[in-house]
Amino acid sequence: MSEIELRARNFLSVLRHCQHLQITVESADQSGLVLRLPYSEQIVGNPVTGVIHGGAITTLMDTCCGISTVCYLPEFEICPTLDLRIDYMHPAEPGKPIFGFAECYRVTPTVIFTRGVAYQDDREQPIAHVVGTFMRMGKAVDQAELGKQIDQGEA
User: Fold this and answer.
1) Which of 55, 52, 67 is nearest to 112 (CA)?
2) In the chain, pLDDT over 70 holds for what percent of residues?
3) Rounded distance, CA 114 to CA 133, Å?
4) Does residue 8 contact residue 28 with C-beta atoms inside 8 Å?
């Protein structure tokens, strides 16, 4: 397992809402991050059709874009979401997991720009497109211990 993938897994492991949703890291490298959201009756938005609620997909994609920053930055930084836009293309097929892919495409001293897609079988047939911006807060003293724990898997 690469250092980037380990850092992404460790970061995801401290997010309690992601643990509840059973989101996992499929892959992580310098080109981006793929997360997996398993299908569950608990996150169905329409019980008649079995379609997953858009809020679960939003959580997946906000998390995916946010954690994709660890694929790009040389050291862990807390980068809260500034803005997130999701364009839904079509509903997810019931009974199947949803994957989120995100990448950083521009990094400035104060903002990180990300983009990605939510999909099921084929990344070229997305359920949703996402763009997100995240504020760089730097490696402040109070973040140092959390960053160390995430880097070392102790969080």
Assistant:
1) 67
2) 89
3) 6
4) yes
Overall number of domains in the chain:
1
Write the DSSP string, 35-103: EEE---GGGEEETTTTEEPHHHHHHHHHHHHHHHHHHHSSS-----EEEEEEEE-SPPPTTS-EEEEEE
pLDDT surpasses 60 at 9: yes
pTM exceeds cut of 0.85: yes
CATH code, 57: 3.10.129.10
pLDDT higher than 60, residue 101 = yes
Rounded CA separation 132/115 (Å): 6
What local confidence, expressed as pLDDT, does residue 1 receive?
A: 83
Closest CA to 12 of 27, 31, 28, 25: 25
